[in-house]
Design a protein that fits this description.
The complex is a heterodimer of chains A (351) and B (336). Chain A has 351 residues and is mainly α. In chain A, a hairpin with a 2-residue loop joins strand 1 and strand 2. In chain A, helix 2 runs parallel beside helix 13, helix 3 packs across helix 12 and helix 8 packs across helix 9. Chain B contains 12 helices and 12 strands. In chain B, strands 2-1-3-4-5-11 form a 6-stranded parallel β-sheet, with helices on both faces. In chain B, strands 7-6-8-9-10-12 form a 6-stranded mixed β-sheet, sandwiched between helices. The chains are: A mainly alpha (351), B alpha/beta (336). At the A-B interface, helix 3, helix 4, helix 5, helix 6 and helix 11 of A face helix 1, helix 2, strand 7, helix 8 and helix 9 of B.
């Protein structure tokens, strides 16, 4: 932009940033627009195909499936906007649950103690990812792949070493369990329909992520770092702090998800979580995040998670032949993403 | 740099506070202390003075599998008693499992225990072991192929028969419409279980595939199924950890279905005791590990072979509320 033209502007040639845009055009420029259209299409599709999809209780189930994914998808989306990946996010959830469970059990401590120790350790894992990334300058793909493998091994090794089995001991009879369960894994009944508390966590996290992204300086830094890190550094954006902050965000969400896992099932299996990191990334991508970084939104990730929840449960409601389950899931996701890309292209062409 | 150091110091302070709090914030119920109070540890010592033979066990278990953990415990206990140097390795990919068997042959072990979940991939390497003069015992899966491959004995449960036992049990409980929840798509044993149950069950039975590495997904999928079909009155899960997920799904969906499961763990035992679960079908994994080592020892020591060429079955054993009381303590220590 700079130096493109040295000619003095005519007074009516306003700076492009000052040009008034119509609300419609503004809407078309939003990253999550494509996914919203996709979500509406998926919703309509299953509403027609599956009888039980539209009943109120089904809505609670779909929202629950979406929320468990969405809690992680929001910070993962922010991280992707910042230009990085986190392949360790899936097993980090399991690690977080294992830590609180085993710490509480082994120390015979009030489970809240374990919950807070787990928060610290999980944040430390996130900080490790961010620190290693910014220090070594290796791609986040490699760094977090390393963390992913190490955590997978640690989860198994430590659990077996400490508990003697591959799952943790039940902590349901320990002090503090009921109050912790209320916070992380309770069920609220609204109008006869049961909603899991994860839906509230999801809404809160997406809200905070959106606020950070659109209303704070840190949000600007995220876009800048993801768009062009060197240029961002040149104009004074603290790249290292921003990236570490983003990994801490993922770690925090992993902690929330991990506590949900622990307090809903009481016992944690040490081998869980592998493969989930990809679903988080898929949700963020469906929601309009670019794999290359610099573009996307937190609300988009929520819509992506919602599409995923509707698809995976809609197939069950539609009672399709289960042999084809994965195929349907893949096809739906691909269609949603294509529709998303198409709408975005149209929007950019008219903008 | 100064900022980093204060950060470290702050972290240290927080840790210290938490550790301090953990000492004061003790739980008076449950936890390790309760376990230690309850457990009187029995000291293990070899019961025989035969030479210290080395036996290797190579299974198709994935990482962190509860079932195989119990098999391994049984094998280790028998190895301790029989003065055996016991080596365990596993890989859920057939090709990798075959390579692990090859390394055991290279080590010239005195006995070999393998599971034949993917028999074709294992055929050549088992034949190699037999040719090298290593006695082989097959466990868990592969009852049909065991003898053909040259193994001494097969110890395990026939998955189809186990499934049939489930179908019979569902009949006797007057169930009409059942759901079979498979947590690993493409697992032959899982398909056989559900097929076996379908065979003997008088009502109708449907399969539901769920993602076993993602518990919330397991729960919400079962939930969705129960909501879409209110007439389902029985849910059968194929692994102990998934029974609890099914119980939660049932509650949220407001279903009246009975939850039944394959395999046993502490949670299933308490579930049976509190009537959250109907019954569990156990194939006694501890026995599979224990017997495999013991039979190899017997063969080495005395050339004994059990089973007369037929598979030795360790299950199915149908466990209900009445049995659960007696088994609860054993599930807690991870041997049942």
């Amino acid at each position: 932009m700079s130096g493109a033209t040295a000619a003095p502007r005519k007074p009516e040639q306003l700076d492009e940033r000052l040009v008034r845009t119509s609300p419609l055009r503004k809407l078309l420029g939003r990253p999550e627009l494509g996914s919203v259209v996709g979500a509406a299409a998926v919703f309509l599709f299953f509403a027609i195909v599956a009888d039980s999809f539209l009943q109120a209780s089904s809505f609670g189930t779909v929202l629950y499936a979406a929320s468990v994914l969405g809690i992680m998808a929001a910070p993962v989306a922010l991280l992707m906007i910042g230009g990085e990946f986190d392949l360790s996010a899936g097993v980090m959830v399991t690690s977080s649950a294992l830590i609180s469970s085993m710490f509480s059990y082994q120390m015979t401590a009030n489970v809240w103690v374990g919950v807070f120790v787990s928060l610290l350790v999980t944040l430390a894992i996130g900080a490790f990812n961010g620190f290693m990334l910014t220090r070594t300058k290796l791609p986040s793909f490699i760094i977090t792949l390393g963390t992913f493998l190490m955590l997978t091994g640690l989860n198994l090794g430590f659990t077996k070493l400490i508990s003697g089995t591959v799952s943790t001991k039940a902590i349901g009879d320990m002090e503090g369990f009921d109050s912790a369960r209320a916070l992380f894994a309770s069920t609220l009944t609204l109008g006869g329909v049961e909603f899991k508390v994860t839906i509230l966590w999801w809404a809160a996290l997406v809200g905070v992520a959106t606020w950070i992204l659109l209303r704070t300086r840190f949000g600007n830094w995220i876009f800048a770092v993801g768009g062009e890190a060197d240029a961002a550094r040149a104009v004074g954006v603290p790249v290292i702090r921003t990236k570490i902050g983003l990994y801490l965000g993922v770690a925090f969400a992993a902690w929330v998800s991990g506590q949900h896992l622990l307090f809903s099932y009481d016992v944690v299996q040490s081998g869980e979580g592998v493969g989930n990191e990809l679903t988080y990334i898929i949700a963020a991508v469906i929601g309009g995040c670019l794999i290359t970084g610099g573009y996307g939104s937190a609300i988009g990730s929520a819509v992506g998670a919602f599409i995923f929840g509707m698809t995976s449960k809609g197939i069950v409601y539609a009672e399709w032949n289960p042999d084809w389950f994965k195929f349907f899931l893949g096809a739906m996701l691909l269609l949603a993403t294509l529709l998303n890309a198409w709408v975005r292209k149209r929007a950019e062409a008219t903008a | 740099m100064a900022r980093v150091r204060t950060g470290v110091r702050a972290m240290g302070a927080v840790l210290a506070v938490v550790l301090g709090a953990s000492l004061t914030g003790c739980s008076s119920t449950g936890g390790k202390r309760a376990e230690e109070r309850a457990a009187a540890a029995a000291e293990g010592r070899a019961a025989v003075n035969t030479p210290r033979w080395t036996f290797a066990m190579v299974t198709h278990s994935g990482d962190g599998d509860t079932f195989w953990d119990i098999v391994q415990k049984g094998a280790e206990q028998a190895a301790l008693k029989d003065n055996i140097n016991f080596l365990y390795s596993h890989n859920d990919e057939a090709n990798q499992q075959a390579q692990l068997v090859q390394t055991a042959i290279d080590k010239k072990v005195d006995g070999l225990i393998v599971s034949l979940a993917k028999p074709d991939a294992m055929k050549a390497v088992v034949a190699k072991a037999v040719k090298a003069g290593i006695p082989v015992v097959t466990v868990n899966s592969g009852s049909a192929e065991s003898k053909e491959f040259g193994a001494l004995t097969h110890i395990g449960q026939d998955e189809s028969i186990a499934g049939e036992a489930v179908g019979d049990e569902l009949n006797s409980r007057g169930r009409k419409k059942a759901l079979c929840v498979l947590h690993e798509q493409g697992n032959v044993g899982h398909e056989q279980r559900c097929a076996g149950a379908k065979k003997t069950f008088d009502g109708t039975m449907q399969n539901l595939y769920v993602d076993g590495t993602n518990m919330p997904d397991v729960t919400s999928s079962i939930e969705a199924k129960l909501q879409s079909d209110k007439s389902i009155d029985a849910v059968v899960t194929l692994g102990a950890p998934f029974a609890d997920a099914a119980v939660q799904a049932k509650q949220t969906a407001g279903s009246k279905a009975e939850i039944d499961t394959f395999d046993l763990n502490a949670k299933v035992a308490t579930g049976l005791q509190s009537d959250k679960l109907g019954f569990a079908v156990d194939q006694q994994p501890y026995l599979q590990g224990y017997q495999a080592v013991d039979l190899l020892w017997l063969y080495r020591y005395n050339r004994n072979v059990l089973g007369g060429g037929l598979p030795v079955l360790t299950g199915p054993q149908v466990i209900t509320k009445d049995d659960a009381d007696a088994l609860a303590d054993f599930t807690k220590r991870g041997t049942r």
